[in-house]
Amino acid sequence: MSAKDYGKKPPLFVYKMTLLSQLATGLLPVSVWEPLWRRLLEHKVLDEYFEGKRGLEDLLANEGWFQDNAAYRQAFASIAFEAMRAKSTLTQGGQGLCDLIEDALDGASLIVQLHERVFQGEISAAPFWMLREMFLLGIWDNPAFANYAAVPSRQARANACRLALIASQYAYSFESLCESAQALARHFPASEGGDYAMSYVHEGLDGPSLQLPFREQG
User: How high is the pLDDT of residue 201?
Assistant: First the structure.
């Protein structure tokens, strides 16, 4: 998936990114969902479903690579409802929604559009992941989007809190996720490599010579 693909059919591209965002910020490890994602793209399952040619059940019923792999079925189950809901959203006025998103004045208004219109108010890190990746792809390229181009995942928030970058690792609302994303983007600008490492920092922090959190060491 590239900026070139977006230009061909923006609503379909945003649809795929919506599902990829859910997988990337979900509970399943990359080793489980990434092979499934590659297969879905290879067999154009999402393209055909989005374009209304066939239903999901029909598309996957006779696909041995899917039916014979329990891990694939488990991973797909985590986005099946989203696949149906997002299709409804993006096939009804999808181009207008894409234009509205592209024309957002800043990161705050863009993330609100994603949260409310694309992800239907779901409180998760998925909209932020989508914003960051679309920003890095150069598709949503307004420099004003950079202050939200970071992903406040559970692990990233926990690590950021241990490093005293944010006050609390907990996020009970969309607003608190926004605050965490802004802090991460401020310390780890997407243009300089981004916040990817924040989801793995604990692996180094918990080494035998570095027992944290920093806050508790005073």
Answer: 67
